[in-house]
Design goal:
Blueprint lengths: L2 H42 L10 H9 L7 H10 L10 H14 L3 E4 L7 E4 L10 H8 L1
Antiparallel strand pairs: 1-2
Helix pairs in contact: 2-4, 3-4
């Protein structure tokens, strides 16, 4: 194989990586929508989940919709998908703690707002491989 063959293969791999990342974001968004629909419909017909979801996973699911959300909005989304928050004496404090930990882990991003009511956004997967300056130059070129 020649150097040009390797360049073509690299270009193809980068394009596929970015395409799959975009598909993943769309799938995560749709899964979050469906989870909310399933939770709401289940609640309306009186069903309770047989496999309880942990709060951290529920917050992840709520944020995967791709829309920035405040802690209050996260709480409303959790209630809408059927998460039982009544077991916590201060549900908002618990949600704040989960959001802080997910932010520290890099799973979500904090979006500061001028009014002090910050929002959180699901951290999208990276769109470009960070393998070094040569590859960055190749991508730009």
């Amino acid at each position: 194989m020649t150097s040009e063959d390797y360049r073509a293969a690299l270009s193809s791999a980068i394009k596929e990586y970015e395409s799959l990342g975009e598909q993943r974001r769309e799938i995560d968004k749709r899964l979050a929508q469906l989870a909310q629909t399933i939770g709401t419909l289940s609640k309306l017909i009186g069903l309770t989940p047989t496999v309880p979801m942990g709060l951290t996973d529920a917050v992840r699911l709520a944020l995967r919709g791709g829309v920035p959300m405040s802690p209050l909005e996260v709480r409303e989304r959790l209630l809408a998908i059927g998460v039982d928050l009544s077991i916590y004496s201060n549900d908002l404090a618990v949600i704040h703690t989960v959001l802080k930990r997910l932010n520290e882990a890099g799973e979500i991003r904090l979006i500061p707002r001028a009014n002090g009511k910050h929002q959180f956004l699901w951290a999208a997967p990276p769109t470009v491989l960070a393998l070094g300056p040569e590859i960055a130059e190749f991508i730009r070129g």
